[in-house]
Design goal:
Shape: elongated
Structural class: mainly alpha
Largest sheet: none
Number of strands: 0
Helix content: 55-70%
């Protein structure tokens, strides 16, 4: 039997309401699911320390393997140690400690005064004003020269003094064989001669002498000059012969003759060396000739 128009309208309305309720129910469920996802997304995952990640084998530089090991991409910041931790690891690394220790030892070797540690004091200064430069030594040499007449007069005085002293010492030795007083006097004279050649600054004076001798062009005669003045004064700029009064490294006689080379002749070894080299040049040509003469006569 065919339906009436009222029945068809009621049926269509019911179907429309059912479809509307279904759509609303679906949107409600979708909304609940979306809200739940958003709420879940807002809950942060707990962070773990690098040590915990390393213990758990997490990927990155702290685990045994993973996408951040080897040549792979850089790890996220949360897997990287902080600046303080990296600095502390660097400072406490064995290589850093070893390098620092080597640097400290090297500094000690450089700055320690080994002369004092080993008991070797600095040599006394030979010149009154302290060590002098090579230019100053050359100035001493260029500013002084001796003529042959003056050199001959000095040599004659030295010869007389030497002979007189030898005669006096011979007489003392003869008397010393007879009585104790003469023996004591002879011993005292020998001690005076020894003390006159005792010189704490001999090493520095010899260094001056070697340079000034070479500047004269007599480098091959250095050993002769060294031995000659070892016998004469022990390279003592204050050496005074107790018998003749000869003075200084070259044993000028009288000592005041040294003043012709400089006003500081009493204490300046370069001044005395310049005078002595001038004397040797004027009379013996060079130290080789002076030493040859001394070896035969025991004076020069």
């Amino acid at each position: 039997m065919p339906q009436s128009h009222g029945t068809r309208r009621r049926t269509a309305s019911a179907s429309a309401r059912a479809r509307s309720e279904q759509r609303r129910g679906g949107r409600r469920r979708d909304g609940e699911r979306g809200a739940g996802s958003r709420r879940a997304a807002r809950v942060p995952a707990p962070r773990q320390s690098p040590e915990e990640l390393e213990a758990l084998g997490a990927p990155g530089p702290y685990g045994p393997s993973g996408p951040y090991g080897g040549d792979g991409p850089a790890p996220p910041d949360r897997y990287r140690p902080g600046k303080r931790r990296r600095a502390w690891r660097l400072l406490t690394h064995n290589v850093t400690i070893t390098v620092a220790a080597i640097a400290v030892l090297a500094g000690g070797v450089v700055f320690v005064d080994w002369d004092k540690v080993l008991g070797e004091a600095d040599p006394p200064k030979a010149a009154a004003g302290g060590p002098i430069s090579t230019n100053d030594m050359l100035a001493h040499l260029q500013g002084f020269d001796m003529d042959a007449v003056t050199a001959d007069s000095v040599a004659a005085a030295k010869e007389r003094a030497y002979k007189e002293h030898q005669a006096y010492m011979k007489k003392l030795k003869v008397q010393a064989e007879k009585d104790a007083a003469a023996r004591a006097k002879l011993k005292a004279e020998q001690e005076k001669e020894r003390l006159a050649k005792s010189n704490p600054s001999a090493a520095q004076n010899k260094a001056y002498g070697k340079k000034m001798n070479a500047a004269k062009g007599w480098g091959n005669c250095w050993s002769s000059l060294l031995t000659l003045w070892n016998h004469e004064s022990g390279w003592n700029e204050r050496a005074t012969n107790p018998g003749s009064g000869a003075y200084g490294i070259p044993q000028a006689l009288p000592g005041s003759k040294l003043a012709s080379a400089g006003s500081d002749w009493r204490t300046s070894s370069p001044t005395q060396i310049a005078w002595g080299l001038g004397y040797i040049k004027a009379r013996y040509h060079d130290p080789c000739g002076a030493w040859s003469w001394w070896s035969a006569h025991h004076w020069y």
